[in-house]
Amino acid sequence: MLRHLAAFTVESQLIAASLSAAILCLGWWAYCRCSRENGKHASASVQRSHEAAVVSLTLFLVSCAYSTTVRNAIAAWAGQLAVVPAVLVLGAAALLPLSFESIFPSAAASGPVAPLLPSAAATARLIRSRRSVFPKDYNGASVPRAAIERALEAANWAPTHGKTEAWRFTVFAGGQRIAQLEEAKLRALHEQLPPDQLPAALEKMERKRKDVAKVSHIIAIVVKRVRNAKGSLMPAWEETCSVACAVQNMHLSLTAEGFACYWSSGGVGGWAEAEAIRSLVGADGAVEGERDQVLGWFYVGCSSRMDFYKGRRGPIADKVTWLESE
């Protein structure tokens, strides 16, 4: 077998290797092209596979151009030995622009270069997969801090009118910190509620204690009242909408990683208004008499029951009115 391998010249081995690489890259490119529409690959994968295929084909042609065996074989057939390398090299040169056009598009390109984004189908699938999963269905496993940080970074890219970036988050990570929040809530209930309402609130809190114990992180959601660059306050409702968008970004990020989430409004307008709670979550500021606002609590955990949560929506056509020009 070694004698058979030795019979191949270095140039023949180079040709075989470059041809094999070209075939593999072409297969990769075809796969990426077919699967992009199904949301499995972004445009970047198609672009990279296309460039790899073209470069591999170019190497194959250049190898052939400088191969004595190939030149002699073609010359015996064509009778023009000197023309063969030039033809092959010109063919390789013609392929190179196809590779680099996507990197350096010309001004005369027919349209903009596709951004490195997931397909519309993949984006829609993620949005439709988002669920509010109750903490009772969490299993107590911890969510990695890196996943929480990625979700918070996604939240940071919410729309913000006036560039105020009014979202603020306090992350209670793990049982000890979550217990700290629960203790603050208990004190607030004792301070705020009249004697006839306190027993029911305490009973509800005790009933949910076992569910809270399954939660990995609780993230306090706060609207921070801040001035814009011109020194003005944006309308409170706009800032609230902005923070809600940030929470949605966070929820989608964690959904994409397979984690369970739930936005609770518990205590908003009630025990969450206690000064101790406000101080704990950084909602103790005020500008021109307008105080920061606690919008609720974002529960994060792991669950094996997420598939039991089925999303249902009525037809969008029932909720849209089109006013079209003739």
Automatic annotation (TrEMBL):
It comes from Prymnesium parvum. It holds the Pfam family Nitroreductase. This is Nitroreductase domain-containing protein. PANTHER family: NAD(P)H NITROREDUCTASE YDJA-RELATED. Residues 127-301 form the Nitroreductase domain. GO terms for molecular function: oxidoreductase activity. Belongs to the nitroreductase family. The lineage of its organism: Eukaryota, Haptista, Haptophyta, Prymnesiophyceae, Prymnesiales. SUPFAM superfamilies: FMN-dependent nitroreductase-like. The keyword Lipoprotein does not apply. Its cofactor is FMN. It comes from the Eukaryota. Keywords: Flavoprotein, FMN, Membrane, NAD, NADP, Oxidoreductase, Transmembrane, Transmembrane helix. The chain crosses the membrane at residues 12-31, 74-96.
